[in-house]
Design a protein that fits this description.
5-stranded parallel beta sheet; alpha/beta
């Protein structure tokens, strides 16, 4: 019997970690992402975010800039050490050029000003997830090609 209702590994639902100290914003974004078919998990602090990424894989992080204790840029620096391939979309109510420039210099994938346009945020998330999936696939293909082109002497 064909059980085609089970998702294949390529069809697994991406996990998005949302980090915002404002619980109202966090709950809204988690609901928005869940309603659009994504697995959404939340954290209310930079420390909680770092604990989560150390304990489970995530495909993308939506990270608020202005948070107490560790701001979003400090958290991002730590994330780059733990999970450098995971794209990060920074959210901020303070859209100044210095913050934007620093974020881009650090390698932030996207920078979104609050209040967030829901459709725009969802499009940015989907674009980043597709790009990440493409990168994974390309890396796998290159690895397979390299394995198949090695000479017999190289394989020993």
């Amino acid at each position: 019997m064909d059980d085609s209702s089970q998702p294949t590994p390529a069809e697994t639902v991406p996990t998005v970690l949302v980090v915002d100290d404002n619980k109202g914003v966090l709950e809204f974004l988690l609901l928005l992402l869940s309603k659009h078919g994504l697995t959404a998990i939340g954290a209310t602090s930079g420390g909680e975010c770092l604990s989560i990424v150390k304990s489970r894989p995530v495909d993308l992080i939506v990270l608020d800039v202005m948070m107490p204790v560790m701001d979003g840029l400090q958290v991002f620096r730590e994330l780059k050490k733990i999970c450098p391939a995971v794209p990060v979309i920074l959210l901020t109510a303070r859209d100044d050029m210095n913050t934007r420039a620093e974020a881009m210099d650090l390698g932030v994938s996207e920078f979104v000003a609050k209040p967030v346009n829901n459709r725009d945020l969802l499009n940015r998330i989907r674009t980043q997830l597709r790009s990440r999936e493409w990168d994974k696939t390309a890396t796998q293909v290159v690895s397979q090609i390299e394995k198949s082109t090695k000479s017999p002497a190289d394989k020993t």
